[in-house]
Model the fold of this input.
Amino acid sequence: MDHISRYLTPEIKLSCYEDKFFKSDIMFDDHMLIWFISGETKIIQYDASFLFKKGDIFLIPRNQLATIINYPSNGEPHKTVVMHLSVERLKNFYQNIELVKQPVPENKIYSFKNHPLLESCLGSLIPYFDLESHFSEDLASLKIIEALSILREIDKNVDNVLANFDEPGKIDLISFMERNFMFNMPLEKLGYLTGRSLSTFNRDFKKHFNSTPQKWLTHKRLELAYYQLAEKKKKPIDVYLEVGFENLSHFSHAFKKLYGISPKQIM
Done:
C-alpha cells in the first residue's frame, strides 16, 4: 500500500506507510513535531544520525537538511501524527511573549522520548481522524497552542529555535557543500540555504569547485561510499541510500565507472 496522509487541517495530519520503507531527502519549510504511533524512522544528518521508534516524539527544525528513512516494524505500519509549526503560526503565538534575546543555536533534532504531556496532547488528536465532520480551525489552533506551551515548559531553550524567523544568510559555500553533499536537494534549495539565488549559487560553485554541482556531488558521494565499504565494511545495500543515491543499480553502475570494480568487490 502506498503512503496515506489524512489531514485534519493543513497543519495536522496522520501519516501512514503500510508495508514498505520510504526514503526521502528533506528540508522542511515548517518546524515539524512528530509522534510515533508505530514503526521506525532513521534520520541522517551530516554529523549525526537518529533512530526513533514507537512512542518517541521529536521536533525537526525548519531549513535543516536530512535523509529520512521510514520503516514498518514488528508487523505494524509506520504511522505518525505530524504537526506543522509554520512561521506564521509561530509569529502569532510569540507576538505577546517577551523573550530574552539569545544566540540562535545550531539547528538540531530535539528528542522528547515519550513525554507524557506531549503524548497526551498529540494522542488526543487520534479520534478526530475517524470523524467525517469538519475539524475547525479554532480547535486546531488550540491544539497547536497546547503543544507549543508544553514544548516551552519542558525545554526552556526551544524559544531560541521556534521564535527565530530569520531567513538563511549568505554563508561559506565550500564548508556547506562539504557537510551536505549526500542530500538530494534541488539546486534552488541549496542556493536558498546558502543565501544565494540559483544563478549566484551556480556561479560561485563553478568558481570554488571548478565543476558543475551534479558532477561534483556524484564524485563526493562515491568517495564516501568507497570509504564506508572499504573501511567500515558495510554492505552496498546499507550504503547507497545514506550517501545520496536513489537506487542500488544506479549506484553500482556509477561506482564501477569511477573505480573499475563493483561495490561488492570491495568487501
